[in-house]
Automatic annotation (TrEMBL):
InterPro entries: FAD/NAD-bd_sf, NadB. It comes from Nonomuraea ferruginea. This is FAD-dependent oxidoreductase. Gene3D superfamilies: FAD/NAD(P)-binding domain (3.50.50.60). It holds the Pfam family FAD_oxidored.
Length: 534
């Protein structure tokens, strides 16, 4: 058994984990960072999901280090890709010209930029990255986590890591049960939270669908994949509220639940500069090809790209058959979610209705080389919902819902450690619920949501903070996860510097002010200007 130690152990190398590690390293601390997949970056890279961001992202509402990540992605394209002169001069370059975000891009570019951000600390020896490792056990002494045992994904020896602070930045809050930290999953009851959208009784195994994304382009030839073993099952699968079969162009509109039909036009030849990537005014999902497009060929010199590349994170790949957290058959459900995505790809290639009256697009070519998955899909499933700590503060729907708050805006917290903005966006769930989509006010992240009620040296740094099933739908997106991780890493460093605890920082006005000053000094925004949500 190999044993290692550092000032802080960050378990999980997604966006929250990377941001937490960077905050600790900037503060002069040593860090061990672990990640179970081959790429750091989580939902932005191994899960292949382009960033979901708010209307004002180019001006304010994100941390300085998250902005550095975004700037680095654009700079990487300008330095290394054959952009047209028009695209190169585009200040807010959107390489994919996707409608979902002002910065749709290929996952590998984000991997390169994240690695560059971490490189100086690897070189200095203050950062050690263990990849691909995942946690399998934790040791505790009362309310303190003393060690975490890590296993290599592909077999081999184990490593025991010790640290003064342990940050859980895993996608599913894996450390919480291992360390005996109190947590909740699925829907809380309305009696507990008072939320308008909550059910009368708690439903701990009713969780948002997971999705296994994939990239594809459209070129000459027949690129049809092998017929998946479960294709007949998924071909006839129809959720009760869907309005059609899952494998169809028809499904509920998240905001109205009206059954709508999406269009699909590969390589439409649209002008990338004219794409309106602002979800405040346009959800962007009318044409699924451009919705999450990650490479628009007209942004590149002629011949550089045979086709656009689009990222499939569409309603039809949402896996509804069961949760993947706290169930004995999680592995079976994850495998079935991959089969669903392969079935969607096969359907698109062979049976999908075309606008010209034909069926199937055999020219659709899976781009596993873009997403890194050996089977043509993303390396990792897109996990929308995690275990969530029982926190000192729990953010509820009525804290940010525009319908509840009206013109008052979201609740403002004296212990704010950052800001975020996204609609409460809940995908259909494993319990048979349709979309829940609620307009929100721009909101703050309270420090109390990052502090477990009992445990003193474990901090959440991902989607595992003190939100509810409902509010997780707004707090789970890329810039908010990064801000959560950065705040958690800065908190651990602050506590080490001042020989104090997270609970004490929140309770002591002077310590809290000093910690918040450190955050603002490092470019973390704690309040919103006067803007209205959507």
């Amino acid at each position: 058994m190999v044993e290692i130690s550092a000032d802080a152990l960050v378990v999980g190398g997604g966006l929250g984990g990377v941001a937490a590690a960077l905050a600790l390293l900037r503060a002069g601390r040593s860090v061990v960072l672990t990640e179970e997949y081959d790429w750091l970056g989580g939902q932005l890279t191994s899960q292949a999901v382009p960033p979901d961001e708010h209307t004002w992202v180019e001006r304010f509402g994100v941390t300085a280090s998250y902005r550095a990540l975004r700037d680095g992605i654009r700079r990487y394209y300008r330095d290394h890709y054959p952009l047209t002169e028009r695209a190169r001069a585009w200040g807010e370059l959107n390489p994919g010209a996707g409608h979902v975000s002002r910065l749709c891009h290929e996952p590998r570019v984000a991997v390169a930029v994240i690695e560059a951000m971490l490189a100086p600390y690897r070189g200095s020896g203050r950062l050690r990255v263990l990849q691909p490792y995942r946690p399998v056990a934790a040791e505790t002494d009362g309310d303190r986590v003393t060690a975490v045992r890590l296993a290599h994904r592909d077999g081999g020896g184990e490593i025991t890591a010790t640290a003064a602070y342990v940050l859980d930045a895993t996608e599913t809050g894996e450390l919480l049960p291992l360390a005996g930290v109190e947590y909740v999953t699925g829907f809380e009851s309305q009696a507990e939270t008072g939320e308008p959208s909550a059910p009368q009784e708690a439903q701990p195994l009713n969780m948002q669908a997971v999705s296994v994304c994939f990239a594809m382009d459209h070129v000459d030839g027949d690129h049809t994949v092998d017929r998946p073993a479960s294709y007949d099952f998924w071909r006839s699968y129809q959720p009760s509220f869907w309005g059609d079969k899952l494998l169809s162009w028809r499904c509920p509109s998240p905001r109205t639940l009206e059954i709508v039909e999406r269009s699909f036009t590969p390589n439409p030849g649209d002008d990338p500069r004219l794409v309106e990537a602002d979800q405040r005014v346009n959800p962007g999902d009318a044409n699924l090809w451009t919705f999450r497009r990650i490479a628009a060929r007209d942004n590149f010199l002629p011949g550089a790209y045979e086709s656009d590349i689009t990222l499939v994170n569409w309603p039809m790949i949402d896996y509804l058959e069961g949760p993947v957290i706290d169930v004995p058959d999680a592995g079976r459900h994850l495998a079935a979610a991959r089969e669903l995505s392969l079935s969607v790809l096969y359907w698109l290639q062979t049976e999908a209705p075309r606008h010209d009256g034909g069926t199937g697009y055999p020219g659709l070519r899976p781009r596993g080389d873009v997403t890194g998955g050996a089977d043509g899909l993303a390396m990792a499933p897109y996990i929308r919902e995690s275990r969530r700590i029982r926190a000192l503060t729990t953010v509820t729907e009525q804290d940010l819902s525009a319908a509840v708050r009206g013109d008052k805006g979201a609740v403002s917290y004296p212990d704010s450690v950052g800001v975020g903005m996204y609609r409460i966006d809940l995908h259909p769930s494993t319990g048979g619920d349709n979309y829940i989509d609620v307009a929100c006010s721009p909101f703050e992240i309270p420090l109390g949501a990052l502090i477990p009620r009992r445990t003193v040296n474990l901090l959440p740094a991902c989607k595992n903070i003190g939100t509810t099933h409902i509010t997780n739908g707004a707090y789970r997106l890329h810039p908010v996860e990064w801000n959560v991780g950065e705040a958690a890493g800065a908190l651990a460093a602050f506590c080490l510097d001042h020989a104090t605890t997270p609970h004490a920082v929140r309770e002591d006005e002077r310590l809290l002010a000093d910690y918040q000053h450190r955050l603002t000094r490092d470019g973390v925004e704690l309040r919103w200007p006067d803007v209205t949500g959507y």
